[in-house]
Amino acid sequence: LSLHDALPICFGMETYYQLKNYTIICAGTVLGTYDGIYKLVCLMVDTLKSKEFNYFRNCDQVNLNWLFYTGKLGDNIIYSSNRTGTIMTVAISKKVTVSKNYIVNEAGGIAAVVHQYDRMPTLVKLVEKRYSSSSWLFNKLLKHRHFRNIWQRL
Q: How many Å is the maximal CA-CA distance in the chain?
C-alpha cells in the first residue's frame, strides 16, 4: 500500500484529507541522537497501541508521517528534501544525478546519505566501486567487532 492508501486505513478519512497533499517522508532514512531516536520509537509504539490507530503491517511510514505532520514530534526536527537536503531517497526521485563520482541532490549538493540506491544498477556499481573491500572505510569498519560479526553472517 502507498502512504495515501494507508492513511485512511490507519487514521481515518478526516486525517487522510488533512495530510494527503504533504510530501511523503521516508521512514527508512531517519537520523538522530540516541535520545531523539529513542523518543521517536516510543512515540511510534504509543501510536501503534492507541485507539485512534488501526494497525496493519508495514505501517511505520504512515505512523512517522502522521507524527511529523501533526506536530507530535516537536520543533527540533529537520526535514531533508531530495531537492536540497543531504539525505536522498532514490525511490521518490524523478532523476538521480552523479557528478564526479558523487550522488548529488537536485540542487547539485552532495548527498551524504543515499537511501535505496540499490534500485538503480548504475548507482549499485558506483557504490560497489567506491566502497569495495579495498576502500579505507570498509577496512576500518571490518576492524569493528560488531560490524565484522554482521558481515561474516552475510
A: 53
Contact call for residues 16 and 8 (beta carbons, < 8 A): yes
Identify the residue whose cell numbers are 558481515. 151
> Cell digits for 142?
571490518
**d(C-alpha 113, C-alpha 89), whole Å:** 8
Give residue-wise pLDDT tens across range 91-123: 878 788 888 888 888 899 998 888 888 888 888
CA dihedral sign of residues 3, 44, 74, 79? negative
Please state, in angstroms and rounded to a whole number, the distance separating the CA atoms of residues 44 and 27. Answer: 11
- CA nearest neighbour of 115 among 3, 7, 25: 25
> Residue 6 is placed in which grid cell?
494507508
Q: What is the pLDDT of residues 52-93, one digit of tens each?
A: 777 766 688 888 999 999 999 988 888 888 888 888 888 878
Are the C-beta atoms of 100 and 42 separated by less than 8 Å?
no
